[in-house]
Amino acid sequence: MKKAFSLIYIYFVNLILGILCGTFLVGVYLSSLSFIAGSQIHFFRPANLLPAFKVVSLGICFFLPLSLFTYKIRHQGKVVQCIVYIFLQCLTWLVVFPVIDHQVIGRLEKHYQSQIKYAVSEEDKELLSSGYFRESNGEVYYFLDDVTTDISAKNPVRGVEITTGDWGDMNMISFSSPDSIEVIEAASPYKDVLIKSVYGNNLVSNIRYMGNVIKAGQKALAGGFISYLVFLSLALALSVVYMLAHTSQWRAVNYVSCITATLVIIAVNVWYYSPMFGKIAASSFMGNRLFTAMSSWCQDPFIFVANCTMTLLIVILGTIEKISLRKNGGNR
User: Fold this and answer.
1) How far is CA 213 from each of CA 200, 226, 257, rounded to the nearest angstrom?
2) Is the dihedral of CA 140, 144, 149, 150 positive or negative?
3) What is the pLDDT of residue 332?
């Protein structure tokens, strides 16, 4: 009984600390997108607090089972622990996710959106600093003036454009609009290509793709009971990984099994909701008769079938390993 209630304690501690720490870390990273070489660095901007909270508070629901697996592997419980685990999973997807989406985030957006927009417009006035060489598509740019949103035909920004190659050339140029500065567009989603060359695009892409899964959950929740039930096939697949927590006598094997299964499930769903899948699905999957028949009541038949298939495979694998362990005289 004590182990079962410890599971509840660990659940809420990880939920609260995960949201607080995750919001801060993601907020700092989002702030890094606005770093400009040679300018004052703001490691945390209030304007990034709400976007970070939206991603973390909903995204953590997908990773909460992992925190429970780690406890279960070290502290095996009985039927009561399993019942508490099922209760916590239901709590996550029937209460926590909907409440955060509809109530918490909705109220924050309603009360603070105007202040956040104002803060962003003030902080983002500076676009690029002068005195640095920046390269884009074989051209190197050196600005003699700071680039701000105030530039215009009457207030242009002076710079030097250097063409690289065997027949390189150098020209004095002036810009009257931010849209005409190619190096700004090349820096996206960062502000400065010099910062982009340091951090790269991988983490930005991962956050964006995970955000697509979260948006799919929000859309499904707004779409009604059947729509959200289909999306919960992902939650079911993540939840049954619980069955892999004691399939081996070695804890390290159990940890690796649970972590791998969780990451594979999330990766499949991230891939499905990424732009890459749309091109593949259009030519391969959506012509299938099964998916066509299911599309009348299921908005995302492919990922529904994929999640249910992964759920079934994990249940079968967990059951077989459990039986095998007992037959071989395992410690359970």
Assistant:
1) 22, 17, 23
2) negative
3) 46
